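[Automated response] Your request has been received and processed.

Submitted sequence:
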Amino acid sequence: MLNMIGLLDRPTSGKILIDGVDTTKLNENKISSFRNNKLGFIFQFSNLLSDLTVLENVMLPRHIQGTEKNTERDAKEILRAIGLQDQLNKRANKISGGQAQRVAIARGLINHPTIVLADEPTGNLDSVTAETIVQLMKSMARKLNLTFIVVTHERDQFGDVDRVITIKDGRSFEGEEPRKMEVVV
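Generated structure:
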């Protein structure tokens, strides 16, 4: 599902509409541009480049986008908002797992996306750090008016959210999984 929404895979049928744009009609160049401008990505494993500093990792999507104006200032501002202003010049392989995941969130936000796709963003974190990450994502969603689409096997970690779509055995339904009752006679 995230690959389809993230425009990494194309559907064999149907449409993918994002902000009113039928993305299935876009060519590869327009898909890349659309993805870079509208979507942010947060992965289960932060996927930071270890040779780069925290600041450089956050600025990377802007460099790829080709938007250099105010990049460093914006990256520092996001890192301050998530409490990592003191880690700017550390190499990515020298910070904790929780800090790396916060850097990944900052990197996902740097291009001011309208949708952030998060694949198991707390999957490799301890429960205390996971709670911090969940609260950070909720705070950033409110503060920046973003939509986070989170795929998780740990639904309870996220508490009260605006909408839950459950996918099981290739079928989706709104809300929590419906209860099935069997009567055996």
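Summary generated for your ticket: Residues 2-9+26-174 form a domain with the Rossmann fold fold (CATH 3.40.50.300). The chain has one domain: 2-9+26-174.
If you did not submit this request, please reply to this message.
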